[in-house]
Each structure stands twice: as structure tokens, then as C-alpha cells.
Amino acid sequence: MCGIVGYIGTKKASPILINGLIRLEYRGYDSAGISTIEKDGLSMMKDKGRVKNLYQLEGMDNLNGTIGIAHTRWATHGKPSKENSHPHMDNSKTFSVVHNGIIENYNELKNFLADNGYTFYSQTDTEVIPNLVHYYYNKDEKNDSLKFLRAVKNACCDLKGSFAIEIICKDYPDHMIVTRKDSPLVIGKGEQENYISSDIPAILSFTRNFYLLNDYELAILSRDTIEFYDKHLTILKKEPKNIEWDATSAEKDGYEDFMLKEIYEQPTAIRETIGAKLNEATKCEFSELNFTKEYLSSLNNIYIVACGTAMHAGLAGKNVLEKLCKINTQVDVASEFRYRDPLVDEKTLCIFISQSGETADTIAALKLCKQKGAKTLALTNVIGSSITREADFSIYTHAGPEIAVASTKAYTSQVILITILAIYFAEILEIAHEQVDLLKRDILELPRKLEETLALSESIQSFSKKVYQEKDIFFLGRGIDETVAKEGSLKLKEISYIHSESYPAGELKHGPIALIENDITVVSIITDKNLVEKMVSNIQEVITRGAKTLVITNQDIDETMFDMTIKIPKTNSFISPILSIVPLQLFSYYISKGKGLDVDKPRNLAKSVTVE
Ligand code: M6R
Fold first, then answer.
1. Total domains present in the chain
2. pTM of the model
């Protein structure tokens, strides 16, 4: 949601900025723009629509500046339009700003600035920022090298809400200032050049050395230097983080779409996430954690809080934490949890799952739990992301960058990591030894079984061809399979725009079966041997009413009654979602392709939901 890019160096900035924006397209946007410092002052090129349209804007070829800022906007205040696109300048065209986030007190600031003679040309909250910086800049009587920095710092102290901001000033043609609060921003250090981005993959091909800012910290960048300051303008020392992700992991690498590539990367992502944490001979190891038997035995509750797909991974986490560790576990959608005064105290462990580590509601829920005295643990894919800076503990999936909006490898990596976490707890608690041994063995076999599952892709593609024009598709499951039905249904909705519902199969007769009519498609997941008969009876009920059926199973059942059965490898029920979701990911992918849709960038959606 909104992307920012910045460049300062020796090369022409505009193509670097536009290419950076293209790499951030997956975050979701409706307008784009760039601003550079030219010999005659600040340039600004922007419009609604796709990033590549920027190349067509008159004057773009004439930009030669080697410092610039860029933005993709996902409209919040004011419709998508040229005026509302970023960058925004102050009235005197001294400052140019791009901003990701929401300024909650923009009305108040706008009135204040209007009273001081400023005029506004857009409906955005952002436009107050360059004008407020200008207001402080003008008031400052000192004309030293820190005047620009002081003005930005003073303006930011007045802002309420969330922001990641890049700002350039025509009076300081060799400098750029960036700052953030609750919105993502990374600084990439190169040789005689520095980069800014909302996330790491967009600039991974230029550098592996990244700096991260904490809330309200500022950085002033030149071609060769990066200086860091806190909100009182005290100089800070920071060490860069070396990111191990391979630059090609942010490329399509011969695949038609990122989503397909990421589906096929799952065996590797699982292997990497298991890493050295789990083996058959020794106890599970999380060097980042220091939980004791005493602490875990004292817990009254675990809460898993997340959004979307990450929340579905949390449901698999609940299953294993309750069954293996015998700890009462609840799963909540972050945007609901925050507002329902949850019963959280020092005896609660709160786990937050987020691929990006930047989801606004999840981070806010984490802050709430901290206030209530609970220990907080972030489970994320992005080192140094905002959530990791808030949580008491952080553990990481090693899925590599996930670019497609529809989450695939992040989900399966989250499920495996929370399962390993549960094993780690069980080993500390000295319980369930036999179950743990079996589960460990099954986990280590997962990458191979995932490869076998991916090999089923052709049959799934052929079934998808039969149903891609449907209006409604239902997903059914029981127990752990119902959590997979939820994730399968979400995947289908987001990339195919087909209306879809998922239900616990036993609930059908309590209402939803009224929707089942001739030729409707029902997808069912059956991996729990204790629930096979019940599931088969439920499927028979929909067949009787004319439904077409796709069944994903690892059980030996009579397949003749279904239109298509996808037989996946058998595995431990705690980790069965990691295999059973794969056919459903492929199912959604092929339906979306059949409809000719943009699989990686579905309409209205953003990869990283940084507003509440
Ligand atoms: O980055 P996060 O894991 O916190 O994102 C949470 C959801 O926005 C995300 O899982 C979303 O539901 C995906 N688009 C689903 O494919």
C-alpha cells in the first residue's frame, strides 16, 4: 500500500526511480510520480494510472538530476487524480515530499497553515507536510547546514498518525532527508550512491546493506554519507544489516507470474525455515527465545493475532499448540481483537504472525498486548520489519521475498514455523515425547512431499479449466481441513474475483446448503482419517443437489463419486495444511489465468496493508 523510492548518487535518478516503483507495483497503487532536483530547481512528474505511463510524460526525458524521490499512491484521502498523486510541493516550490501513511491531524494542520497564508491544491493529507516544513524553515533565523533538518524535524513533531517520508529541498541539492513512524522505509547503502525504498526487494539488485530507522528517527543522505538523528537531533550510530536474500529471488526467473514461482518455491522455503532449528537427534533450538518450563506452565492463554492468510496460518498454530502443548490458544483477526478489550495479562503469551511485518492492525494489536503486560512474539518473514522492532521476541520464516499479493509460500512457512515453535514448547514442558518424535520425522519429509504435490499441477489445471467461469465456488472441510478451506477460499476470491465461501462441512445443513444448486462447484479437503465418513456424507449431500465436486485428500476413499480427486501424500495431521493448500493455490492460479486476470496484482488489493 503506497510505495516510496529514493535515489541519490552519480547516475541519472529518473530511470532508477521509475524502475524502483515498478518493483513496488505489487504493493498496490492507483497513481505514481517522481520529483528530482534539476539545475533550475525541483521537477515534478506525476499522474494517476500505471507507473510505466510516467515514461510518456512530457519533459521526462529532460530530467538529468542525480537525486530524486518517487511514489506509488493507494488513495485514502482524495480520489486517484494527478493533483492528489505524490510528490507534493509547498507553495514556494522549495520542498518536494512523498509520504506513505496517514496524517490523522491533517485538517487541524491545514487550517493552521491556511491561517498562515498557505494554499492547498489537493485533497490529500500529505500536502500539509511540505508546507509545514516550509513554515518552520522560514521561521528559522539560523542559516547553517542543519536548517533543512531542523525544519523537517519540527514539522514531523506536529504530525499525528503514521508516516514514511522522503523530502528534498532545492536549497540543499546534494541532500535528501527521510524519516518514519509506523510505516515501512529502508535505506540501502551503495558505493557513491544511496537508495530508499518501502521494502527490501525493490532495491535488492543494488545493495545487500540496509539501514533501518526506528519511529521518529531521521536520516540525512548525501551521495557518500548517511547520518542518523533521533527526534532531538542527537546523532545516532547505526550498523547496516546484511540481508542474505538473493537478488534473483525478487525476479520472475522464467515463470509467467510471481505467484506461480512462489508456489513452486515452497519446498525450498520450508527447507530453509526448518533450517537448523529442528532435527531428530536434538531438541528444537530457537536462539532468539528464552522461554522456561516455569513460564510456559504459568500461561493461562496464548493469543495468535494476525490478518488474512497469516491468520489462517494461526489457526493451524492453534491446532498444534492446543493438541501438542495443551495450552489454551485463541486466534483473532487483528482488526477485531484490538477493539474488543481482550482478556490479556502477564500470564498471556501473544503471537503475531505477519509476512511483511508491516500490517498496521497487527502492529497496533501487538502494542496493545504489550501495554497489558503480556509477552509478545512476532513471527515474520522480513528481518528488521516494524513488528520486530515492537515485539519482545521475533522469529523468522525464511521464505525469501514474497512479491505476489496472494500469499502462498509465506503461509506454508508460517505453518511450519509455528509447528516447530510448538515442538520447542513441548520439549521445554517435557510432554508428548512420542508425538514430538513422529512429528519431527514427518516435518523433515515435508519438502520432498511438497515436490510430489506440486507434480499434480496438470490435473488441477484441467479441473480449473472446467470451472473458471463459475460465479460461486464453495470450500468445505472439518477440523484442520476447515482452516485450509478458509485459506483456499480467500485465495480464490482475491485473484479470480469469483464469489466464494468456506464452511465447516457440518454446518452445511444449518443454512448454507440452501445455496447449493445444480452444477455449482464444491471443493472439499479430507485429510483427517477420523472424519472421512462424515465428510463423505456431507459431500454426498451436495452431489445429490447437483454439485460438481473436487476433493483434495490423502485418505483411501472411493473416488468414483467425485468429479475429480487430487490425491496428495499422507503426512502428520498437524502439518497437513502445508500439503493440502498447494492444490488450492494452483486451482486459484489457473482459474485467474483462465480469466485473463493479473494474478500478481489483483484489483483493489495491496501486498502490505499499512493503514488500519
Ligand atoms: O503481511 P501480512 O502477513 O501481515 O499480511 C496479512 C494479510 O494482508 C495477507 O495475508 C493477505 O490476506 C494476503 N493477500 C492473502 O493472500
1. 3
2. 0.80
